[in-house]
Amino acid sequence: xxxxxxxxxxxxxxxxxxxxxxxxxxxxxxxxxxxxxxxxxxxxxxxxxxxxxxxxxxxxxxxxxxxxxxxxxxxxxxxxxxxxxxxxxxxxxxxxxxxxxxxxxxxxxxxxxxxxxxxxxxxxxxxxxxxxxxxxxxxxxxxxxxxxxxxxxxxxxxxxxxxxxxxxxxxxxxxxxxxxxxxxxxxxxxxxxxxxxxxxxxxxxxxxxxxxxxxxxxxxxxxxxxxxxxxxxxxxxxxxxxxxxxxxxxxxxxxxxxxxxxxxxxxxxxxxxxxxxxxxxxxxxxxxxxxxxxxxxxxxxxxxxxxxxxxxxxxxxxxxxxxxxxxxxxxxxxxxxxxxxxxxxxxxxxxxxxxxxxxxxxxxxxxxxx
Length: 370
Ligand code: C2E
Ligand code: MG
Ligand code: MG
Prior knowledge:
Number of domains: 2
Number of helices: 14
CATH topology of the largest domain: TIM Barrel
Largest sheet: 8 strands, mixed, barrel
Shape: elongated
Strand content: 15-25%
Bound molecules: ligand C2E, magnesium ion
CATH architecture of the largest domain: Alpha-Beta Barrel
Radius of gyration: 25 Å
Strand order of the largest sheet: 5-6-8-9-10-11-12-13
Helix content: 40-55%
CATH class of the largest domain: Alpha Beta
CATH superfamily of the largest domain: EAL domain
């Protein structure tokens, strides 16, 4: 829409708000109420461009901002928006090149079992090797990968690489290898996803028990197709973990509704487990709840011996975090698997015994293992 006689920014602002407001009322079509929302991005002549094309792309950058603010919003172009849009565009172009030129890498972070005091699983984590040699973590590029739709291609690469690597371990030095693979909600909406996983397992001759897929609760927003994909994966004996549990809007409904095998307790919950009685109580209750539901549990982000000590009394649990091992390159995994029992041994001997009587027995068991 063009407002030819807008004398000031305020006029454009008011017009935009009116436009958004009109859509707040439902439309009546064939006796049914239909709700259509509008987002508005606006740019001003001549401040934001002298050609129609420039004004449109400025309005488009503003529209992007309006949508990022939520539903039914209005945004007017500012030069900062252009800088953001340009940065995103550059990263997106870089990602396209990265897909073509194979600039991605996987690193692997161990999870240990408190039962066996061994490394029993590694989580594959994506890295982007930039042309200058730096390894970029997912936080820097994953959101743009998802927004641009490139996540399907990147996700497929991750699946193939993780399954291929797991297969090398399984048929080589680590027959019981298990690899957890992070999956974004968009991937599960891809109708070919389940078949693709199956095909890859067949191609690399890997039993389904050797992988575990990790998803976050945001999959719940994607609807029945996702649930169907998850059920089919479970029917093929593929384990499914719910990542980052205990953050955001974590709800007990997802424990009930999703066909899960594991819950990963988020780092933020574990952060103060040794100092804050509330997070300790919440964690203990969640562990009890998961056990009652027959779900396996991993505590993420163990960084300090005190956190390890606070959890060491729980049986049949997995722990993961920098204290045990940071994410490592694939060719170090077998070596690290060998030293982890020693690391845990030293850790157990270094931490103070728990005060509570009830905790004593399991702890004594672990100590004797050490
Ligand atoms: P996540 O799946 O929850 O992975 C755990 C993240 O926490 C990893 O960050 C890991 O390096 C970090 N971490 C592990 N232990 C500790 C600790 O003790 N302290 C602290 N401060 N951090 C710890 P990373 O590798 O940067 O990955 C971030 C997120 O990106 C992942 O969170 C996951 O959601 C996503 N991601 C990673 N790889 C993939 C992938 O291949 N596909 C998809 N879709 N998402 C991925
Ligand atoms: Mg994960
Ligand atoms: Mg996590």
